[in-house]
Design a protein that fits this description.
With 399 residues, the protein is of the alpha/beta class. It folds into two domains: 145 residues, Aspartate Aminotransferase, domain 1; 236 residues, Aspartate Aminotransferase, domain 2. It is built from 14 helices and 15 strands. A seven-stranded mixed beta sheet has the order 2-10-9-8-7-3-4, sandwiched between helices. The protein has a four-stranded antiparallel beta sheet with strand order 11-12-15-14. Helix 7 links the parallel strand 3 and strand 4. The structure holds pyridoxal-5'-phosphate (PLP). The site of pyridoxal-5'-phosphate has 14 residues, from helix 6.
Length: 399
């Protein structure tokens, strides 16, 4: 069947032409059929979201502010101040007026790529990275320099230095904690090095951090931004995974001199974030409800992660290896070369009713055909164990 583009000769912008539909979205549609065990998602379990507490916050805001809560309003200062305090608590030297409320990290990525990146210009992103990072760089037709990643500590800092020195990228994007899709985190030393290199080579580094609050083992590490002395590191934080994705609320820590320029770009996209959501989230966090929520969710995610790792050990221990995250939502699985996880997916869904994301969906320059991303946060432990057993059946049959 002819698509409408074949009937009407639209002339697209370079961005309109280069954007690819997120493969993940298409896959997730099939993974949501009722009897499919989905290890494909990238989201918290709806049953673990603080629904009743958030509803009370919404009610309170509307009862108190009436229609004004539903108006166009500037950024909500008490929320900016709370976020400023949260970031200073993580070692970031910033004032509240450097906190810019966004509609989540994807919007922060969009704003910064609009600010710094022209089509054809060099950009550095991790060789395996979240598809949304690819959309704002590859999708803007940037000239991509993939940063190699290792499966224990993420981005390779020697390679970053080579790329920064040789190509002076207009933008670099790094996911510091519980990487999507790898599940790994940068060491403290790597964070220091990246901050220093951003300043030395004058490369704006976007620190895309939706996951650091989802730690269930070990000590939290400071963000890269905490080591930045040059104002070249742009920190993006999000309430999506620590509170709820559907709020569409996050923040950016930006250099003071750029706040007004960034505000103008943001306004051109969607004016501002929901006044009601900002107030309700502030109500939630300032009531002290965030810490107990995170403690409960992370404890549950730990159990689910352990269930997944021991099921992998039991069913695939002799033929595969995988990352062992200290938090977040994901495990990255590497299978024998003979397996192509993309080709295997229809069979996994149709025959075994289990879904995952093929690793190649995250790969910037192809390859990684024998890898996959598995999510452990969105199902109870027994479901995860059954899902891994089904997955092992498909894989063994293919071998
Ligand atoms: C690494 C990374 N960055 C950004 C996002 C988008 O986050 P948000 O919901 O805050 O827009 C995600 C969501 O999965 C992600 O994994």
């Amino acid at each position: 069947m002819a698509t409408i583009e074949h009937i009407i000769p639209y002339r697209f912008s370079s961005e309109g032409q280069h954007l690819k539909r997120s493969v993940m979205r298409e896959l997730l549609k099939r993974a949501s059929e009722p009897d499919v065990i989905s290890l494909a998602g990238g989201l918290p379990d709806s049953d673990l979201l603080p629904t009743a507490a958030y509803q009370a916050c919404l009610n309170e805001v509307i009862a108190h502010e009436g229609g004004r809560a539903l108006q166009y309003r500037p950024q909500y200062e008490p929320l900016r101040a709370w976020i400023g305090g949260w970031m200073r608590g993580r070692g970031v030297d910033c004032d509240d007026d450097q906190v810019m409320i966004t509609n989540g990290n994807q919007q922060g990525l969009t704003i910064l790529s609009k600010l710094f990146l022209e089509p054809g210009e060099p950009a550095a992103i991790e060789a395996i990275t979240f598809t949304g990072v690819q959309q704002v760089t590859v999708g803007r037709d940037a000239h991509i320099h993939p940063i190699p990643v290792d499966l224990t500590t993420g981005a390779d800092t020697d390679a970053i230095e080579r790329i920064f020195a040789q190509y002076q990228p207009r933008l670099a994007v790094i996911i510091p904690d519980f990487h999507n899709p790898l599940g790994v985190s940068l060491t403290d030393e790597k964070r220091r090095l990246i901050a220093a290199m951003a300043g030395e080579y004058g490369v704006p580094v976007v620190e895309d951090d939706p996951y650091s609050a989802l730690r269930f083992y070990g000590e939290a590490l400071p963000p890269i931004r905490a080591y930045d002395r040059s104002d070249y590191v742009f920190y993006l934080g999000s309430f999506s995974k620590m509170l709820a994705p559907g709020l569409r609320l996050g923040w950016m820590i930006a250099p003071r001199e750029l706040v007004s320029r960034i505000t103008t770009i943001r306004e051109s996209i969607d004016l501002e974030s929901s006044a009601l959501t900002q107030r309700a989230v502030y109500q939630f966090v300032s009531n002290g409800q965030l810490e107990p929520h995170l403690a409960q969710m992370n404890a549950e995610n730990r159990v689910r992660c352990e269930a997944m790792l021991s099921a992998l050990d039991q069913h695939l221990g002799s033929i595969a290896h995988w990352t062992k995250p200290d938090g977040g939502l994901f495990v990255w699985l590497t299978l024998p070369e003979a397996i192509n996880t993309w080709d295997l997916l229809p069979r996994a869904i149709d025959e075994q009713r289990v879904a995952y994301i093929p690793g190649s969906a995250f790969s910037v320059s192809g390859g990684h055909h024998n890898t996959m991303r598995l999510n452990f946060s969105n199902g109870k432990p027994d479901l995860i164990v059954r899902g891994v057993a089904r997955l092992a059946d498909v894989i063994r049959a293919a071998l």
